[in-house]
Give the backbone structure.
Amino acid sequence: MKNSHISCLLFFYLLLVLATSDLIQKSCYEASKGNHANVKLDFCVSGFKGNPKAKAAYGVADLVLVSIDTAIANATAIGSKISKLLDNKHVGMFARNCLKDCSELYSLAGSSLEAGLDAFQAVDYGTANAEISAALDAPVTCEDQ
């Protein structure tokens, strides 16, 4: 009897894992087709499969929240790295000015992502899309500096 309960639990656990894996695969596939040139299928899938929160996702909305949270963490980490570079006394004036611009861009990106997260949770998808899209410009603009 005990073995049948364990087998049942294992079966349902495997179903959940497979369902989540299928959700990730399908969501990444949909995000990568069409006019979403920024989303690469393999990168999307590997990013979610390496994230415990994504593995626990029940739907696309959960994956969106994981994506926004990850983007906020990344923008914050990059902003911190830029600050450390600005602390280096050996950075030249041109590089320092570029880094200051990038610092401001990533700060704004973080704020936009936070606003996008709030809007998404409030089911205001238009505002969420606008805020998150604005945040996507930071890396490109910084790189162009």
Residues 61 and 79 are 27 Å apart (CA to CA).
